[in-house]
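Async update (no meeting this week)

Hi team, since we skipped the sync, here's where things stand on the single-chain job. The sequence we agreed to prioritize is pasted below, unchanged from the tracker. I ran it this morning and attached the output directly underneath so nobody has to dig for it. Comments welcome in thread, and please keep replies under the output.
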Amino acid sequence: MHPDFSKSYSQFIADDGTMTPPLMLLAPDVITWAADPDGLMMTITLPAIDGEACVLTAIFPMSMGAAMAKHRQRRFPVASGDYVSVVRKLDEVQGSSGERYCRFIVEVAKPTSTAGK
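Output:
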């Protein structure tokens, strides 16, 4: 099992949960989505600082109903190849199998196009 993002990137997580310096990453080909009481949850595997892999669990805050609707309609805020910024650590939770992991708030980076200028 891969380590949690919070362990792999612990030196970049400030006491208040913010990322210092901010971290922007490219969404991989495989993204797992789930509706969660706190929003739409995205889980991805990405390279850790040591070159190994780690798992980032991200929450896009919204109501459970909105998260379920987006999941059912497959209208996800991020697709493979999109850039996202890890904003801050939301909390630490315990999974149904007993593992502990942290959830992070992320934002989609809006592309700026200069085409045609």
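Quick observations from my side:
The chain has one domain: 5-108.
The radius of gyration is 15 Å.
Reply here if anything looks off.
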